[in-house]
Amino acid sequence: MHSEVERLSEMAQAGERMIERLRKQAFLPDSRKGLNIRFGIAEAAQLLGCSTNRIRMAEDDGRLPPPPPTENGRRPGYSIEALQHMREVLGASPARAPLDRPAMIAVQNFKGGVGKSTVTTHLAHYFAIQGYRVLVVDCDSQATTTTLFGFNPHFNITREQTLYPYLSIDPTQTDLLYAVQKTPWPNVDLIPSNLELFDVEYELAASGADGGSVLASRFRKLKQGLEDLARDYDVVILDPPPALGTISLAVMQAANALIVPLAATTPDFCSTVQFLSMMDQVTGQLSQAGLTVDYDFVRLLCSKFDGNDPSHAMVRQIMEQTFGPALLPVSILESAEISHAALRMMTVYELERPIGSVRTHKRCRANLDEAMAQVAALVRRGWGLATPASPEAVVNG
Ligand SMILES: Nc1ncnc2c1ncn2[C@@H]1O[C@H](COP(=O)(O)OP(=O)(O)O)[C@@H](O)[C@H]1O
Ligand SMILES: [Mg+2]
Hints:
By secondary structure, the protein is α/β, with parallel strands linked by helices. It folds into 2 domains: 41-78, no CATH class; 103-388, 3-Layer(aba) Sandwich (Rossmann fold), CATH 3.40.50. Helices cover 47% and strands 8% of the residues. The protein has helices at residues 4-26, 41-48, 52-60, 80-90, 116-130, 144-148, 164-167, 199-206, 211-230, 246-254, 266-288, 310-323, 336-343, 358-382, 391-395, and strands spanning 103-107, 134-138, 181-182, 188-191, 235-239, 257-262, 298-302. β6, α11 and β7 form a beta-alpha-beta unit. The protein is globular. It starts with a helix and ends with a helix. The model is unreliable at 29-33 and 391-397 (pLDDT under 50). Bound molecules: adenosine-5'-diphosphate (ADP) and magnesium ion (MG).
């Protein structure tokens, strides 16, 4: 005889087994050998901001390896590694100058399901394709971002590989280097998470009267640890838990920029307003306690816009009226391509071929590029750089 409560454990175990099955499917040797995306020469030239001729000449005179050989009459194109090498040889790296501070972007809202992890991972892969060095830090014990990098947080990640040993009340690590893992992307590293990271929150609750000082010391520690790591990166992207807790506050304080994703729905609008006023109070309290919060930019990003739903257009308009230029002009469109890629534990940027129709895929990809470019422009502005004008912008005056 099973009680309903015992069913919880059965359901959890059946769920874990299914996740592992899905992950194995996503990683069948045939379906995913690392990162298989390729870029044609025109695309490569556009990404490097040079002419195709410049690439061909460097290939001819031996500065670059010969172009990838044709397969079945088609050139498979350049890998991300090849693009990175090309950037080095042709002096086309977008990396920050050594004295510019790395962007440390928290993608935060206190609501679940608003697209934090989707924005985090797509932003990371967008920056990687553009040639930046990226570190993603999964600070959420729900670990969706870890999953989207192809790890099963339950089976592949131990507590010792998360932020826990560093943030614990009895820390076993004095810096964060131990936690940095390689990903299939040559220029994206990840600090993964799993459910056990939540122990950090329990420990604080149990620390009783010392709570305040424990909290402050953890804030300082996370900020210091991330700043030390960030020296090797251009962009650090933080995916905090969707609640007001130790870790999320520590992340908000460590970050130097804030992106707030929300859908164009009334519940998301209302909870985002709550989030903003809570942030306002908390940052005030933190600075009274000598913990400064300082952001280069704070922007809202509409993360799942459905153009066919009139209510989305209405709420988006309300958002524009309310937040003005703090709302990024380009929304991420709701797309089956994004949710289908998520089912394969991937981002749209990792797909070698469309999951849905070519048209759906292209539309989704173009929209993501445009939405993510808005964030890249803010980062580059922080480094005193103007974003190169897009060809369309020039054409359209
Ligand atoms: N633009 C989008 N189009 C389609 N599905 C999306 C989009 N953005 C997010 N989703 C889906 O919405 C769900 C919640 O997104 P997620 O990024 O996990 O939110 P959060 O991290 O805020 O909890 C996921 O299933 C994700 O695949
Ligand atoms: Mg998430």
